[in-house]
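Listing S7. Sequence submitted for prediction.
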Amino acid sequence: MNQEEAKARAQALLNVIENAYAIRIVNIVAVAEAITEKTCDEQKILTICTALNTWVALNAGLSGEFEIPLDVVNDFAGKVMRL
C-alpha cells in the first residue's frame, strides 16, 4: 500500500470512529498523517485505529467536535510498531 492509499485508509477508519460516536475529529488529517508517517501497512493502520477507537470511546463527550492529541496517536503507533 503506498502512502496515499494508506492515508486514505486511515482517514476512512477515522471517519468510522466519527460516525460511531457522532463526533467530528477536528484534526483528522493530522492524525491520518501521523499514522502513515509510522506505517503504510494495512493491518498496523487498522490496529492503531482500533486503539484510537477505544481511546475516543473513553474520552470523547456525547457529541460535537473532538481533537485527538497527536502524542496519543504517536504513543499507540509506537507500541503497534514494536509488535
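Caption to Listing S7: primary sequence and predicted C-alpha cells for the chain studied. Helices lie at 3-21, 28-38, 42-59, 70-81. The chain has four helices and two strands.
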